[in-house]
């Protein structure tokens, strides 16, 4: 059950923004920037504006998720996890729509500023990244709000979107913004970041599997069922570890880079908890542990690459 919270506007907006999800949004930016430093193309302005854009897009996605789930009825009294601002009455739907609009505009301004710093007058790169930015904005909004039908997050496609936007696009896009070049080997850490971010989503979806199923929110966990969703979780973590080892061996880095493997222990602990309990509070804790592990992984590997 959710806890009641006094109506304070600032608190309501911070609640809806779900600040605890922001480390995950930053992980791919930090990793891509570390790879850029290893390649000798790091730019401080690109890092700062990339982080700002990613954070605003994540907040936009969280606001849209709060709004969309409230409109669909998924966020009822039986739901476990954090209090939702619209469903609990802390914010009205109209206020949330205005908040989404302002956050989307801020993300667009930050993104365009990022492109100016990264590319100057290179119109071809501008066009490609404007299209990618538009896709990111659309994906952030339509995850639970949808356009012309059910949101894609309600059809089991959220995992694919998270893998692409928090992994491949986040890491490789950041690397390209710094260096205007890519290497084939770069796809390995990008895939790892995406796999770990998808594991975070899977913990969330397993936690909410029963309430989601009752309300027709057909996440991949609902489609698989809990037992197979847990097997899927272990596959995500195992594949991430394997790809990391391949990358570290292929591209020798200092010991700081290898220290990214320390996250294997908390990730394993979170996976065991996911396998053994249905307690919502414990699973929420494991969700946070998995997200923070992803951030630590990215920081340590980025540091190792920068020192290489």
TrEMBL record:
It is a multi-pass membrane protein. Keywords: Cell membrane, Membrane, Menaquinone biosynthesis, Transferase, Transmembrane, Transmembrane helix. One of its GO terms (biological process) is menaquinone biosynthetic process. Pfam families: UbiA. GO terms for cellular component: plasma membrane. Pathway: Quinol/quinone metabolism; menaquinone biosynthesis; menaquinol from 1,4-dihydroxy-2-naphthoate: step 1/2. Its EC number is 2.5.1.74. CDD domains: PT_UbiA_UBIAD1. The chain crosses the membrane at residues 46-64, 100-120, 126-148, 160-178, 184-204, 232-253, 290-307. HAMAP family: MenA_1. PANTHER family: 1,4-DIHYDROXY-2-NAPHTHOATE OCTAPRENYLTRANSFERASE, UBIA PRENYLTRANSFERASE DOMAIN-CONTAINING PROTEIN 1. Belongs to the MenA family. Type 1 subfamily. Conversion of 1,4-dihydroxy-2-naphthoate (DHNA) to demethylmenaquinone (DMK). This is 1,4-dihydroxy-2-naphthoate octaprenyltransferase. It comes from Vreelandella aquamarina.
């Amino acid at each position: 059950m959710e806890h009641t919270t006094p109506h304070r506007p600032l608190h309501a907006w911070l609640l809806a923004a779900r600040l605890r999800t922001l480390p995950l949004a930053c992980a791919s930016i930090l990793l891509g920037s570390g790879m850029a430093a290893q390649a000798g193309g790091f730019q401080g302005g690109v890092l700062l504006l990339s982080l700002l854009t990613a954070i605003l897009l994540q907040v936009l996605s969280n606001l849209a998720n709060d709004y969309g789930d409230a409109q669909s009825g998924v966020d009822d009294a039986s739901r476990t996890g954090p209090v939702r601002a619209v469903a609990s009455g802390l914010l009205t739907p109209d206020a949330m729509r205005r908040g989404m609009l302002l956050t989307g505009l801020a993300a667009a301004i930050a993104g365009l500023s990022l492109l100016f710093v990264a590319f100057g007058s290179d119109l071809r790169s501008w066009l490609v990244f404007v299209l990618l930015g538009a896709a990111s904005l659309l994906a952030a909004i339509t995850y639970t709000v949808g356009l012309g039908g059910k949101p894609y997050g309600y059809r089991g496609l959220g995992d694919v979107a998270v893998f692409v936007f928090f992994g491949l696009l986040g890491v490789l896009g950041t690397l390209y913004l710094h260096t205007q070049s890519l290497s084939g080997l770069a796809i390995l850490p990008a895939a790892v970041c995406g796999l770990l971010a998808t594991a975070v989503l899977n913990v969330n979806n397993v936690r909410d599997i029963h309430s989601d199923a009752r309300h027709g929110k057909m996440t991949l966990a609902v489609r698989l069922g809990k037992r197979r969703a847990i097997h899927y979780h272990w596959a995500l973590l195992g594949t991430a570890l394997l790809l990391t080892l391949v990358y570290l061996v292929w591209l020798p880095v200092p010991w700081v880079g290898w220290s990214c493997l320390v996250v294997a222990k908390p990730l394993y602990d979170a996976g065991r908890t996911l396998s053994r309990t249905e307690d919502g509070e414990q699973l929420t804790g494991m969700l946070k542990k998995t997200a923070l592990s992803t951030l630590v992984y990215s920081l340590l590997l980025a540091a190792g690459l920068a020192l290489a």
